[in-house]
Amino acid sequence: MFYHVKELQYDAKPERPDPVYAKKLQEILGGQFGEITVMMQYLFQGFNCRAEKKYRDMILDIGTEEIAHVEMIATMIAQLLDGAPAKEQENAAKDPVVEAVLGGMNPQHVIVSGLGATPTDSAGYPWNSRYTISSGNLLADFRANLNAESQGRLQVVRLYESTNDKGVRDMLSFLIARDTMHQNQWMAAIEELEQNQKAIVPSTFPQDLEKQEVSYSFYNFSEGTESEEGSWAHGKSMDGQGEFEYIAKPEAMGQIPELNPSPNYIHGTPKPGQMPPGTESAKYEQNMEQGPGPVN
Predict the structure, then answer these.
(1) pLDDT band at 99, cuts 50/70/90?
(2) Residue 260's domain spans which residues?
(3) Quick one: what percent of the chain has pLDDT higher than 90?
(4) Is 61 assigned a ligand-binding role in the annotation?
(5) Per residue in 230-253, pLDDT tens?
(6) What residue spans of the chain are helical by DSSP H?
(7) Is residue 293 over pLDDT 60?
């Protein structure tokens, strides 16, 4: 059960309207790593959690907080859109480079949402549930969560640097701090899980069923050997189960692929003798009934 508290989690009060910046702010609302994504990702991970209760509770705690962040950013976008028609903002973009990049105000903020936020990214692309990850494997999911928070914090910091509005920066400063906590949270949870299971996902699959002779080989599949200098090329593997080795010139281990001809009814490219051209319809029907293989 959810309930709504009328006050925002933190202030969302810009100093002045700025519809062009409102367009940019859409990215951390409805973009791939925006607040709608992490909100839905964490909530579904929590709803579907079959592990210890502490993990379900923790995931739903942060998922519910992300609902509050969606509300904060939507409120900020709406205020940035106050009293500023698109044409005024386009005139304000005096710098031709800025105008070319930003393209002025998002016209959908007027036409579609009536000066309100939309569930889209900064380019107007609709938010997509395919951005979310909820696999049922907590270690895999928590690593995805850490990536989402890392990318999200990076984008918020870039937005912080691109405005001098003290009110906007104040709200973004809060979100940056919460992303700091969330990255630390997921790292702590990942470390805890790794202490109780293998670091490789899934840890429940017997390793003797995989081709273990290539489990810890780093293949040099590009020109140059600089990659050999990395810790991933020599020494103990990160899961503690093997030793990294560097393969400077990997050799092919498979066969030369050769596919069978397609059946007549597929109408692919015929091989010699498969379907002679200019065949009358009666003969054609007879050949089609024969199915795959050459036609006599």
Answers:
(1) low
(2) 211-268
(3) 75
(4) yes
(5) 999 999 999 999 999 999 999 999
(6) 19-25, 27-30, 35-47, 53-80, 86-92, 96-102, 108-111, 138-161, 166-196, 281-289
(7) no
User: Looking at the structure, do residues 189 and 228 belong to the same domain, yes or no?
Assistant: no
CATH code, domain carrying 231: 3.30.1530.10
Domain count, the chain: 2
Is 182 known to sit in a ligand binding site? yes
9 within some domain: no
The annotation status of 106 as a binding-site residue, yes or no, is: no
Say if residue 289 carries a ligand binding annotation. no
Of 93-97, 167-171, 188-192, 231-235, the least confident: 93-97
**Residue 192 is assigned to a ligand binding site:** no
Residue 213 counted as an annotated binding residue: no
| pLDDT band at residue 201 using 50, 70 and 90 as cut-offs | very high
> Mean pLDDT over residues 138-148, rounded?
98
The answer to whether 228 is annotated as binding is no
Choosing from 167, 196, 225, the residue where a domain stops is 196
Question: Would you say 104 is a known binding-site residue?
Answer: no
Q: Examine the domain organization and report whether 125 and 247 are in the same domain.
A: no
Alpha-carbon gap, residue 293 to 296, rounded angstroms:
10
Q: Is residue 148 part of a domain?
A: yes
The answer to the question of whether 170 is labelled as a binding residue is: no
The verdict on 172 and 37 lying in the same domain is: yes
239-277: b (≥16 Cβ within 10 Å) or e: eeeeebebeeeeeeeeeeeeeeeeebeeeeeeeeebbee
220 assigned ligand-binding residue: yes
Same domain as 174, residue 62: yes
Is residue 27 domain-shared with residue 59, that is, in the same domain?
Answer: yes
Strands 235-236 and 243-247, by their bridges, are: antiparallel
Q: Residues 34-56: what's their mean pLDDT?
A: 97
The reply to whether 32 and 145 lie within a common domain is yes
